[in-house]
Amino acid sequence: MKRNLKKFVTENRTAFDSAHPPKELWQRIEKELEEREKSADQITVRKMLIRVFKVAAITFLIGTAGILVYFYGKKNAYEDYRHINPELAAEQQTYSQLVLQKKDSVAIIATKNPSLHNEFSKALSQIEANYETLKQEFANSPNKELTLAAMIRNLQAQIEVLSQQMEILNYLDKNENQTKNEQI
């Protein structure tokens, strides 16, 4: 086969040398390259969009799973407490909700005084850490009812501290308003 090709080329050499490519050849090649480049860009954009949608879907699934685990764990904790002592469990649930409400109230009022809010947060963080320790000890506690009662006392202490913080913030806010009124 090589010999036939070689023979054909040598015999028709003059025809090859005298033949010129058509004038539009380079324009057609350039046009095809541009079309391929455009389609490659479109494919790249599609791939990026697919990746973004995959990441968004995964983030959504992980977030949803996290929220479900959080609320399921919260519900099960209450159920565990209720099996020990229904009255204490209800009391614990009530105080937990009160603590959350008071924290929100303090956070809203304290927006005017961030440095004071930081000090309040530091004061409350130790009590919260003790509460978390009690929650962890609850699972292994030989006297779960006593541990639950200690958790309730801790929540009551948190409520007292938050109430004092609210009183301080309200007092400061009231004094600030009075000084503004006196200046007017």
In total, the number of strands is: 0
Distance between the termini: 108 Å
Overall mean pLDDT stands at 80
Work out the strand percent.
under 5%
User: How many individual domains?
Assistant: 2
Relative helix content: over 70%
List the total number of helices.
6
Q: In oligomeric terms, what are we looking at? A: single chain
Reported for the largest beta sheet, the result is: none
Could you give the order of the helices and strands?
Answer: HHHHHH
What would the principal axes of the Cα set say about the shape? Answer: elongated
Radius of gyration: 38 Å
**What is the SS-derived class?**
mainly alpha
Query: Which residues sit in consecutive blocks of at least 5 with pLDDT less than 50?
Result: none
